[in-house]
Amino acid sequence: DLAKLLLSRGANPNIHNFKGETPIMVAARLMHFNIVKLLLDYGANVYLRNLQNFKGQTALMLASDRGFYNTIQVLLQYHANLNIKDNKGNTAIMFAAKHGRNKTIQILLKYK
Hints:
About 50% of the residues lie in helices and about 0% in strands. With about 110 residues, the chain is mainly alpha-helical. It has a single domain, classed as Ankyrin repeat-containing domain (Serine Threonine Protein Phosphatase 5, Tetratricopeptide repeat, Alpha Horseshoe).
């Protein structure tokens, strides 16, 4: 697996792309659960406020917006912060509610 090889050789799991997204944000947005888990195992930081894209969104918000349950659960197990707000004042729960993702909301509320 290329991601594991890069990480094992010192690739920074917290680097930003031109949109301000970290690898874990991209993996969460694209529903690559195994990559999310791998990044977390190699030190990707899910809870610091400065790990937001240019819209202020975190990996948890991106996964909640799309209802990716496995990704949401692993991010929360690694202490992703539910209370962070994006540039418009939205939290991960608000992203889930916007799309009527009741199961996602239930998962998020378990960690509230």
